[in-house]
Amino acid sequence: MLINTSEYLKSVVKVVDYPNTNMPQFLLMGRSNVGKSSFINALANRKKLAYTSSKPGKTQTLNFYLMNNNFMFVDAPGYGYAKTAKETRVDFGGLLENYLNSDVNCKGVFLIIDIRHEPSEDDLLVFEFLKQYNINLYIVATKVDKIGKSFIQRQTNLIKKCFGMDLSDKIYVFSAETKFKIEEIENLIKQSI
Ligand code: GTP
Ligand code: MG
């Protein structure tokens, strides 16, 4: 286990409101309902630290969480959920752009994908968008508990192909439910901070 203490800090839209710190941080990105908040909860070993819901489109702000008093997770709103009322829909691009252009000490972005499906158009757009930045981008294929072990390689290869990655490139396979391969992600974080 990597994380011993965890704490919700704040929910923020504007850069001026970000926590005033140079602490290393990791941004969680992905479609609505893919499991971003569950990823944080699994790593923190807490059930309800980050707000999860079976209703997509709940998270509308950047939510900062302090882990072990030495790094942060930043939970971003999910994209691709059309039913959020137009008036309340977040300016997703703006929120992301502001974050990436700010001087936060971002050590990496976890782009979370559902291992059962091909990346969506939005996933591909976000992937291309993130590649323009000088940032470590990690693809996490989650909900692996929902497929048989024999399908893991087929699905990860498919996801790599869709993203135009090489088959030798690394994708992190994960389950928030069973904590499958959580050590790989913990090691990645440990080595990055
Ligand atoms: P938004 O904040 O709406 O963008 O969603 P999110 O990406 O934060 O997803 P969240 O963590 O709230 O999870 C959505 C649903 O998927 C919840 O019902 C979770 O219990 C479920 N879920 C998340 N990760 C896993 C997983 O690894 N396995 C299984 N079986 N279910 C998962
Ligand atoms: Mg969430």
Strand content of the residues, in percent? 15-25%
Bound compounds: guanosine-5'-triphosphate, magnesium ion
- Which stretches of 5+ consecutive residues score pLDDT under 50? none
CA-atom Rg in angstroms: 16 Å
Biggest sheet: strands side by side, in what order? 1-3-4-2-5-6-7
How would you characterize the largest beta sheet? 7 strands, mixed
Question: Would you list the SSEs in sequence order as H and E?
Answer: EEHEEHEHEHEH
Short description:
The protein is an alpha/beta fold and 193 residues long.
Descriptive overview:
- The chain is of the alpha/beta class.
- The protein contains five helices and seven strands, in the order ββαββαβαβαβα.
- A seven-stranded mixed sheet has the order 1-3-4-2-5-6-7, sandwiched between helices.
- β3 and β4 form a beta hairpin.
- It is globular and about 45 Å long.
- Bound molecules: guanosine-5'-triphosphate and magnesium ion.
- Guanosine-5'-triphosphate binds at residues 30, 32-38, 52-54, 56-59, 78, 142-143, 145-146, 175-177.
Key terms:
193 residues; seven-stranded mixed β-sheet; binds guanosine-5'-triphosphate; binds magnesium ion
List the helices and strands and how they pair.
Elements: E1 6-12, E2 25-30, H1 36-44, E3 62-67, E4 71-75, H2 92-101, E5 106-114, H3 121-131, E6 137-142, H4 152-163, E7 172-173, H5 182-192
Parallel strand pairs: 2-4, 2-5, 5-6, 6-7
Antiparallel strand pairs: 1-3, 3-4
Magnesium ion (MG) binds at residues 36-37, 52, 59, 75.
